[in-house]
Amino acid sequence: MTLIDVGAIQLDYERSGKREGPPLLLIMGMSGTALHWGEPFLELLRADFDVIAYDHHGVGASTPLDGPITTREMADDAARLLAALGLDDAHVMGISMGGMIAQELALNHPERIRTLTLGCTYCGGEGSALAAEADLAELVAAMGSGDRERALRAGWEINVSRAFAVDDDAYAKFRAIAMRRAVAVPVIMQQMQACATHDTNARLSQITAPTLVIHGTDDRLLPVQNGRLIASRISGAQLEIFDSVGHLFFWERPERSAELVRAHAAVPA
Questions:
Q1: Which residues fall within 8 angstroms of residue 43, CB to CB, at 6 or more apart?
Q2: Could you give the count of Cα atoms lying within 13 Å of 259 in the half-sphere of its Cβ?
Q3: Burial bucket for residue 88 (CB in 10 Å: 0-12, 13-18, 19+)
Q4: Dihedral angle sign, alpha carbons of residues 158, 221, 67, 98
Q5: Which of 98, 119, 117 is nearest to 266 (CA)?
Q6: Which of 78, 89, 71, 74 is nearest to 4 (CA)?
Q7: pTM reported for the whole predicted model
Q8: Which ranges in the chain belong to alpha helices (H)?
Q9: Which among 72, 131, 254, 257 could bridge 40 via Cys, Cβ 3.0 to 4.6 Å?
Q10: How many CB atoms lie within 10 A of CB 179?
Q11: Residue 182: its pLDDT value, please?
Q12: Residue 145 CA neighbour count, 13 Å, CB half
């Protein structure tokens, strides 16, 4: 990956795939890195897109985070990244916290968006829902336990469906990614606070970019009602529901996920 100046900070990014293809900016979620998109999904996207994935402020080699941050501030980072790369606009896909960032990007920098894909995400306000208290408490306890293996396993199990969680090969890949590039717990806590205060509910109707919303019915981190709510708030939004799939839908259904992004961007098959 490569560091690039983005305003007052630097972001670590990777650009891969079809350089002459349409640019696709991938915005990762809380506690994630550019690696967490997973190679199966990335390889499918690289066949058609100029794929840009990056690590957020405070993650990996990007400039360390020294205080609270908001989803709007992270959206400004994303807009500056596109500008620094010499791109006027891009297709944008954000998942989870990255989807919240993508919402703010579409609202505050609409000229940067060709199409918008919002996966397993949340808009705040009336009708939205965060993780069940028991699930969240279990995750926070595991992260704060000092037991790395417990934290990784808890993170895996809440991010995927119960059926997929027993796939040992998939977990081994998830664990290897986490071991290769860890995100500091204080950074995750700041990201969690950014998610908790995120609220675009009343503003989503202002989004004019063609929008695709994807959500799994077995999402325990951000229940599927969030996807339905977001799609209902954005005029003309397409809603795709994955039955029996968890939060990381692009891990469980990489082929279908890439197919949806390709079709939404009107890239020929």
A1: none
A2: 6
A3: exposed
A4: positive
A5: 117
A6: 78
A7: 0.96
A8: 39-46, 71-84, 97-108, 133-143, 148-159, 162-165, 168-180, 185-197, 225-233, 249-252, 254-264
A9: 254
A10: 10
A11: 87
A12: 16
Read off the pLDDT of each residue in 228-239 and give the average, rounded to a whole number.
97
* Confidence band, pLDDT 50/70/90 cuts, at residue 206: very high
Q: Residue 202: CB partners within 8 Å, gap ≥ 6? A: 125
pLDDT at 1: 83
DSSP sequence for 148-209: HHHHHHHHHHHHS-HHHHT-HHHHHHHHHHHHHS---HHHHHHHHHHHHH---GGGGGG--S
User: Cβ distance 155 to 142 under 8 Å?
Assistant: yes
pLDDT at 268: 64
pLDDT at 269: 55
Distant-in-sequence, close-in-space partners of 9: CB < 8 Å, separation ≥ 6: 57, 62, 63, 77
Q: How does DSSP classify residue 60?
A: T
Instruction: From the options 3.40.50.1820, 2.10.109.10, 3.40.720.10, 3.40.50.720, give the CATH code of 2-264.
Output: 3.40.50.1820
Show me where the domains of the chain are located. 2-264
Identify the band that residue 142 occupies on the pLDDT scale cut at 50, 70 and 90.
confident
pLDDT tens-digit map of 88-137: 999 999 999 999 999 999 999 999 999 999 999 999 999 999 988 888 88
Is residue 43 helix, strand or coil? helix
Q: How many CB atoms lie within 10 A of CB 7?
A: 14
